[in-house]
Amino acid sequence: MALPDFKQLKQDKTNIPAWAEFLKKDAFISYENTYKSKIYFDLFDRYIQPCAETGDIRYYVYDPVKHGADPTKKYPVLMWLHGASNSLMEEGCIMCCGAEQYASPKYQQAMGGAYLIVPLGNEERLPDGRILGTWGKEHSAPIKAIFDRVCAEHCANIGKRFVMGASSGGYFTWQLLEDYGNYFDGAIPISSFYIPEDAALERISEGGTHLIIAHGQHDEMADFSECIVPRMEALRQMKNCILFFPEWVYNGDGGVSSVFYGLEMGQHCMINWVQHDLMFDDGTPADERLPDGVTGWIRSICEK
After folding, report:
1. What distance in Å separates the CA atoms of residue 6 and residue 24, rounded to the nearest whole number?
2. Alpha carbons 224 and 207: distance in angstroms, whole number
3. In the chain, which ranges are continuous DSSP H helix?
4. CA distance 95 to 103
5. How confident is the model over 71-112, as pLDDT tens digits?
6. End-to-end CA gap in the chain
7. Half-sphere exposure in the Cβ direction for 250 (13 Å, CA)
8. What is the pTM of this model?
């Protein structure tokens, strides 16, 4: 699929999405995240992982100990996987993949501290807008090697392991779970066009990984009726799993999310709501099963 060059475009905040006709009378459309972005990039260090199969892989790491966390404690490691074309944003990918706000003092405190890893695919934009080089099975081993490398380099402070991603990053989250089952303590596949077969879901479930599977019912790019509904019963059978399938994807201000850069994808960009910690600005959680948001869910798993 062709995607716009987000570095060259500004969001059209006058666009009225096609799904607006389904909104309730008291609903409103929100075109902005209420958190401040592009302010925590300097907290991440940049590295390169040599890889002959896919080309060398750039990645960013937030180290909580380097930024003041207790050096005698252990912290979870969260890997964030970007969607298609986002690696072309370079350090901006830290924001696009969902990781940036989790480096904020507020979120770090809520989690009790955490390492953050953001790997970048070797993507290329063709003249017609199509993207080559986004996540595929061939990336599975090299990305796992980056996770292992970070854990080895900070072994005294490493706790439980998490992986999360949206869109093609949601697909790749599932791929890593299929390939490395019980390696991960927690995972959040978001807005994924792909769901593993039943046998793979059962293996993941039996492996003990805690899951939040997140997908909006009006997703413009990974159609809910095609991607989720046919697999609903198998997903419901998974252990330690929260199915978060809201009718609408919101921003922190309580407005239904619209993101328009030549195509509408506000309901596909649930990753923005995840960067709101699945909490509204007034402190109301998006889901009563997540009373303290994603950060609270992570902390609760680390305390098990």
Report:
1. 31
2. 26
3. 93-96, 105-111, 140-153, 168-180, 198-206, 224-227, 232-236, 270-275, 293-302
4. 10
5. 999 999 999 999 999 999 999 999 999 999 999 999 999 999
6. 42
7. 21
8. 0.96
